[in-house]
Each structure stands twice: as structure tokens, then as C-alpha cells.
Amino acid sequence: MTNFVTDIRDIKGLVPVPFDWRWLWVLVPVILIVAVVAFWLWWRKRRNAVVVPVAPPSPYELAIRALRQLREENLPVEKFYTQLSDIVRQYIEGRFGLRAPERTTEEFLAEAALPTEHIALLSAFLQECDLVKFAKLQPGDADRQRAFAAAERFVEETRPQ
Predict the structure, then answer these.
(1) Degrees (nearest 5) of the Cα angle 59, 139, 115?
(2) CA dihedral sign of residues 153, 157, 158, 160
(3) Tell me, what DSSP letter sits at residue 141?
(4) Domain definitions of the chain by residue range
(5) What pTM does this model have?
(6) What are 13-55's pLDDT values in tens digits?
(7) Is the pLDDT of residue 133 over 70?
(8) Mean model confidence pLDDT for the chain
């Protein structure tokens, strides 16, 4: 029988792994070449990209688009008149520079430099919208169509040439 105490030996120390420095002389230039080629391709693609500036839509285009969308939606009366009024007010702000959305109808109409027929059309239209929004007036379908036509007519007649 063998003595177990004499068979047990201590762990050997760390054995150094040899590093071949020749690979480093090949790897560094390859990485540099790949990086330079990738940068050159990226720069060339970016330089050749044609940037076409897109003009933002005019207030008229925005209003017509919003009116078409509103026509297709089947909204309750109060919501319909609120959105219709907002479309016209935003158009007035964009087209004439009046702060229409934040002011009352009377405030911005007093300041508006529009022909009298447009002021009259706008005044009647916006007063009807205000009655629906604030006084809970319940107009019929014919009134809705008339209000929509008035808004559309105002936008078309004040369209920039």
C-alpha cells in the first residue's frame, strides 16, 4: 500500500503562454486598412447623397387637406364645428399672420385687414361655430353643410395667387 501523504503534490505555478508578436504586425495594418476603406465608403455615400429641400405645405394646402379629412369623418355636431372653426382659424393665422386661434372672434376680426365680404362671411361663420361650441346650439345637417361650404369658400377665395 502506498502512503497517500507522499503521493499528493502541490499545484504547479502559472505556465506562461507564448505570444507570437508576428501576428500583431499583420493584424494592426489589416484593421487600419478596413477602417480607412469603411470611412471612405461612408464619406463618399454621404457626399453623393442629393438632399432635395422640401418646402413645407402652405397654409392653404394644410387647410384644404384638413377640410377634406373633416368632410370624410362623421363627427358629432359640436366636435365638427370645433374642428371646422380651428381649421379656419389656423388658416387665418398662417395666411394673414393674425393670432386667430388664441383670440375671440371679435378680437381678431376687428384687426383683420380683409375685404368686407370676407369679413362678413367669416363673422357669420365663426359666430355660428361659437354658438354651437359655447351655447350648445344643435344645427341640422343643412346647417352643417352650409357652414362647411362657407369655410371652404373663405379658404378658396383668400387663396394666395
Answers:
(1) 40
(2) positive
(3) H
(4) 18-49, 59-157
(5) 0.66
(6) 888 888 777 778 888 899 999 999 999 998 888 877 777 788 8
(7) yes
(8) 85
86 vs 5: CA distance, rounded Å = 96
> Residue 19 and residue 109: Cα distance in Å, rounded?
85
Sign of CA pseudo-dihedral 31, 36, 39, 41: negative
Strand runs (DSSP E) across the chain, as ranges?
A: none
Helix axis angle for 59-72 and 141-157, nearest 10°, is 160
The strand ranges marked E within 65-132 are none
Distance CA(12)–CA(26), nearest Å, equals 34
Q: Please, how many CA atoms are within 13 Å of residue 98, restricted to the half-sphere of its CB?
A: 20
What span, in angstroms and rounded, lies between the C-alpha atoms of 75 and 132?
A: 14
